[in-house]
Specification:
Layout lengths: L5 H15 L2 H11 L10 H13 L8 E3 L6 E3 L9 H20 L5 H24 L4 H21 L11 H10 L3 E10 L1 H8 L1 H18 L5 E5 L4 E7 L3 H17 L4 E8 L6 H20 L15
Antiparallel strand pairs: 1-2, 3-5, 3-6, 4-5
Helix pairs in contact: 1-3, 2-4, 2-6, 3-4, 4-5, 5-6, 8-9, 9-10
């Protein structure tokens, strides 16, 4: 048994413990969104509501979880017991939000990784549900802690593959994917024009803004499930096509040219090469780059952009 003065202390510490349970999940949401946190301040609302509810539990006359002088004994006010579920409801809301945000923010939409994330969130939710229904103390917190660790590893693995400015895959990921994938059918090389002019005259912040805009447009024009877009240098991008025929490749090139060069203030030179005889990736890249530089020279001279010419054949 506990001394009488320990009962209110136990109630206070236990209440605070319930109040802070959803915070790690909310913290993971903010960490995932990084610099976009200003747009989601409303996510604090469920936590604030839960805090208000549990603050009532600090006062004996409104407490919905009451304690005795026995360390392992506690009771629920039959009229207010439903209030204790607020912590589990808020935690579940944050898990759903975290799952959706993660699925949206990572542009590659890898089905296996998204499924892993959903299973991870479901396991944590199930643990909280078990604790809420059968009063198995701390199982939710323990599973959530392990889940948070695995989620952090998941995010870390994703982040190191992504270019932070454009959201496209980075150079390291490009070379990693190129070495192990034999389904590549074409390589499209893109080089942004005028970046130095923007940096010199408007500052590097505007240059970064332009790169991010172009990267977003390239991603938008890349056929999902059939091609992957990368930023492989300062103003150099590429799209790697998988199991696409020549008509599909030409359609992708046309959409890229139309969307960026014809409909925005930005300009990119585009070159491409088909993979006809299982050529090595470096040979394919060289052929596409040669065409891209010809197009770039032509664009500088304000002449025909050469996109309709036959692509170079690899030897």
């Amino acid at each position: 048994d506990l001394p009488g003065w320990c009962v209110p202390l136990r109630r206070t510490l236990s209440t605070i413990g319930y109040m802070i349970r959803p915070i790690p999940t909310l913290g993971l949401i903010y960490a995932t969104l990084n610099n976009q946190t200003k747009k989601i301040r409303f996510l604090w609302v469920p936590l604030a509501v839960e805090w208000v509810i549990y603050i009532w539990n600090l006062f004996p006359q409104t407490a919905f979880i009451t304690y005795t002088d026995n360390l392992f004994d506690f009771n629920h006010n039959p009229f207010l017991a439903f209030l204790r579920y607020s912590v589990f409801i808020v935690g579940a809301l944050y898990l759903v939000a975290l799952t959706i945000i993660s699925a949206v923010i990572f542009k590659d939409k890898n089905k296996v990784e998204i499924a892993t994330l959903v299973v991870l969130a479901f396991n944590v939710f199930a643990a909280y549900l078990v604790e809420a229904i059968w009063n198995i103390n701390e199982v939710g917190s323990q599973v959530a802690s392990v889940g948070a660790l695995f989620y952090f590893i998941f995010v870390l693995l994703k982040v190191i593959k992504i270019d932070p400015l454009t959201g496209l895959y980075n150079r390291q990921t490009f070379y990693s994917n190129a070495k192990k994938n034999r389904r590549i059918s074409a390589f499209i090389s893109l080089d942004m024009n005028g970046l130095k002019f923007i940096n010199d005259n408007f500052g590097h912040a505007k240059g970064d803004e332009a790169l991010a805009a172009v990267g977003g447009l390239i991603y938008k024009c890349t056929p999902k499930g059939k091609a992957l877009a990368y930023r492989i240098g300062g103003d150099e991008f590429c799209v790697v096509c998988y199991d696409m025929n020549k008509n599909q490749i030409q359609s992708t090139i046309h959409v890229l040219d139309l969307t960026i060069n014809k409909q925005t203030e930005y300009k990119v030179a585009i070159g491409y090469a088909y993979r006809d005889n299982n050529e090595p990736m470096d040979v394919l890249m060289k052929a596409a780059d040669e065409m891209m530089y010809e197009v770039k020279d032509a664009m500088k001279k304000d002449s025909t952009k050469l996109l309709k010419k036959q692509p170079r054949r690899t030897r």
